[in-house]
Amino acid sequence: MKTKLFMIIGAFISISFLISSCYKSNNTNYNTTPTSNKVTITSAGYSPASLTVVMGSSVTWMNNDNAVHTVTTSDGSINSGDIATGSSYSKTFGAAGTFNYYDTNNNNLMGVLIVTTSPGGGGY
């Protein structure tokens, strides 16, 4: 009788631990706090070319090239002006959306920024 009781208690503890471990591991992968993100600019393009951030986050584009570059959207929601060599441009995004941007000095350089309302994406 005691053996059966210990087996039931042991199984209950094991299942509780397993459920708790799964729950914790799933939640620790989410960053619900807006963060700072970096994009580098070179003659090869924006790196990363596509970036997803949470609303409220800031993004900094750093010009690591020997030419002047810009970060510009056609609707004007992002307009860095000229970013000199070694300089950067930062913007904080308070609204969700998809921002396709390009370099007005080199139309071949294009990137996309996706701003979500939650770490899991979507919601806008």
Question: What would your notes on this structure say?
Answer:
Residues 16-32 have low confidence and may be disordered. The strands form 2 sheets. Strands 2-1-4-5 form a 4-stranded mixed sheet, with no helix packed on it. The protein has 2 domains: 1-30; 36-116, Cupredoxins -  blue copper proteins (Immunoglobulin-like, Sandwich), CATH 2.60.40. β1 and β2 (45-47) form a beta hairpin. With 124 residues, it is an alpha/beta fold. The chain is built from 1 helix and 7 strands, in the order αβββββββ. It has one helix at 2-28; strands at 36-42, 45-47, 50-54, 58-63, 88-92, 97-103, 106-116.
How much strand content do the residues show?
Answer: 35-45%
- The CATH topology of the largest domain turns out to be Immunoglobulin-like
What is the structural class? alpha/beta
pLDDT < 50 stretches? 16-32
- Return the average pLDDT rounded to an integer: 80
Number of helices: 1
Please give the radius of gyration in angstroms: 23 Å
